[in-house]
């Protein structure tokens, strides 16, 4: 049997099992609207039919939805209109064995007191020993209970009310058609449904013990509405069915709806598929997959999108001959239907000291080779001008506001700074102007502007400062805190 359940990394994910030799039961869980129905009915059931596997479906609320193109393979039977053919009391010729089998089946869905169960067992054995027609056995049993003088008889009669007067069984071999056998129980009240379900499960398990029993899957949606415990027929199918080629495909919305003993039974399923769980049960799902319930599993479950599920069990990826046993995130679409995501942009990782700026901010930053002292620059003039000594805050006074404030002290060059190059101007105009400096340290990243420095003339009474021929790039200090430049002064 090969079941293609989806894809991962553009490769098909497949379940491969040798039926009647291994365990192929599947449990699917996830909240409504995440893709459970698509996977169970449209993918798995379709693959099972292609593999020639029979499928038995119990629909107790008219809630099972199958793809329209599979309808030709579906054999529907409304049990309220057409009784089920099966051996209600088993196939044993021994009345004691037959009555014990039936009482166990009934007791798994109907709570019987300590006095009611032995009374039912003795009365049924008496009825079967008298060898009435199987279809009349329930009517005879009802009369025996009514005529009993036991104190437990009234309570037993009331407990078995769903069985009285119902014609939903007739004696015969249990009929399982090729393809899909769908039994509709929505016409019965819930108490009767549970009895019918349990009888059907017990009959199915009896049929599976036959040597000629073909591989069969029992498909149950809304699993929490079915009787599930160690002594129930469904519990026995989970524990023993794989020996006979009887497997389960079980679907539920929440793992929280099951008690601890029921969750132990569900772990008999070899394959478990978890769609996006509710927030309050993510940790429980993680522990259900692995007893440690690690943070990695929790993170994987949280990140699931609609149509994605986490599969637990040995599945084959692509053409690999070796199954992977680690939990794997799978998309329920085949590889050809999954559009590969476009290559994500390469995003540099921030260091401990250098944060990543948004692109809008990076575009306005000056080139790094102009901010690091031009260490990598090949320009000789730049290299020569890099040899500046650190400048203190009060080396130079601020620029004068008028020509009358100019003095030899204010325009004299400092001995600590190399003499700026002379300009090709008349001798009278070869005067070194005062060198301006900022009042506080500033960062290029904080105050950088593509329009700086200003190119328009700045008028200050009778003095005109012209910066049009000034080259400031070689005067940027390594400490990135101060700009020093020499302007031309025109009186």
Overview of this protein structure:
- The chain is an alpha/beta fold and 491 residues long.
- It has 3 domains: 2-86 and 173-337, 3-Layer(aba) Sandwich (Rossmann fold), CATH 3.40.50; 95-163, no CATH class; 359-491, no CATH class.
- Helices cover 26% and strands 15% of the residues.
- It has 14 helices and 17 strands.
- The protein has helices at 36-50, 95-107, 116-129, 137-147, 153-159, 190-208, 233-240, 260-266, 282-289, 295-302, 359-362, 380-385, 408-411, 444-447, and strands at residues 2-8, 11-16, 26-29, 54-59, 74-78, 84-85, 169-170, 180-184, 216-220, 246-252, 271-275, 308-312, 316-317, 328-331, 458-460, 463-466, 488-490.
- It has a 9-stranded mixed β-sheet, sandwiched between helices.
- Helix 2 (95-107) runs antiparallel to helix 3 (116-129) and helix 3 (116-129) crosses helix 4.
- This is ATP-binding protein.
- Residues 401-414 have a biased composition (Low complexity).
- Residues 369-382 have a biased composition (Acidic residues).
């Amino acid at each position: 049997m090969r079941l293609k359940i989806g894809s991962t990394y553009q490769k098909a994910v497949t379940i491969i099992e040798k039926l009647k030799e291994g365990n192929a039961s599947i449990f699917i869980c996830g909240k409504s609207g995440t893709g459970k129905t698509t996977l169970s009915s449209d993918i798995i059931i379709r693959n099972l039919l292609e593999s020639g596997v029979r499928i038995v479906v119990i629909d107790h609320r008219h809630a099972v939805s199958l793809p329209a193109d599979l309808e030709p393979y579906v054999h529907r039977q409304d049990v309220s209109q057409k009784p089920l053919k099966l051996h209600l009391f088993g196939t044993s010729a021994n009345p004691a064995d037959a009555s014990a089998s039936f009482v166990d089946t009934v007791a798994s869905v109907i709570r019987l007191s300590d006095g009611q169960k032995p009374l039912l067992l003795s009365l049924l054995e008496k009825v079967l020993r008298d060898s009435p027609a199987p279809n009349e056995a329930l009517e005879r049993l009802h009369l025996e209970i009514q005529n009993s003088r036991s104190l437990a008889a009234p309570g037993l009669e009331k407990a078995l009310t769903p069985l009285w007067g119902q014609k939903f069984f007739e004696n015969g071999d249990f009929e399982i058609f090729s393809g899909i056998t769908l039994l509709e129980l929505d016409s019965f009240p819930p108490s009767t449904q549970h009895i019918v379900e349990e009888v059907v499960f017990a009959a199915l398990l009896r049929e599976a013990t036959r040597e000629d029993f073909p591989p069969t899957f029992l498909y149950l949606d809304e699993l929490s509405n079915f009787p599930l415990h160690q002594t129930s027929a469904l519990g026995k199918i989970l524990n023993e069915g794989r020996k006979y080629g009887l497997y389960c495909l079980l679907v539920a919305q929440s793992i929280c709806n099951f008690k601890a003993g029921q969750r132990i039974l569900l772990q008999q399923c070899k394959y478990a598929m978890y769609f996006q769980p509710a927030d309050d049960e993510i940790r429980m799902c993680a522990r259900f997959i692995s007893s440690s319930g690690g943070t990695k599993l929790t993170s994987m479950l949280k990140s699931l999108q609609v149509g994605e599920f986490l599969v637990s069990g040995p599945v084959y990826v692509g053409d690999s001959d070796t199954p992977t046993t680690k939990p794997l995130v799978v998309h329920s679409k085949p590889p050809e239907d999954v559009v590969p995501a476009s290559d994500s942009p390469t995003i540099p990782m921030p260091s401990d000291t250098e944060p990543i700026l948004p692109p809008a901010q990076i575009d306005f930053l000056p080139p790094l080779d102009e901010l690091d002292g031009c260490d990598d620059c090949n320009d000789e003039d730049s290299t020569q001008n890099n040899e500046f000594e650190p400048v203190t805050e009060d080396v130079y006074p601020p620029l004068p506001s008028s020509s009358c404030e100019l003095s030899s002290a204010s325009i004299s060059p400092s001995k600590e700074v190399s003499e700026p190059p002379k300009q090709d101007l008349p001798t009278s105009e070869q005067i070194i102007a005062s060198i301006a400096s900022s009042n506080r340290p500033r960062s290029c990243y904080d105050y950088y502007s593509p329009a700086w420095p200003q190119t328009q003339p700045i008028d200050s009474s009778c003095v005109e400062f012209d910066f049009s021929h000034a080259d400031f790039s070689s005067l940027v200090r390594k400490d990135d805190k101060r700009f020093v430049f020499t302007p031309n002064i025109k009186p």
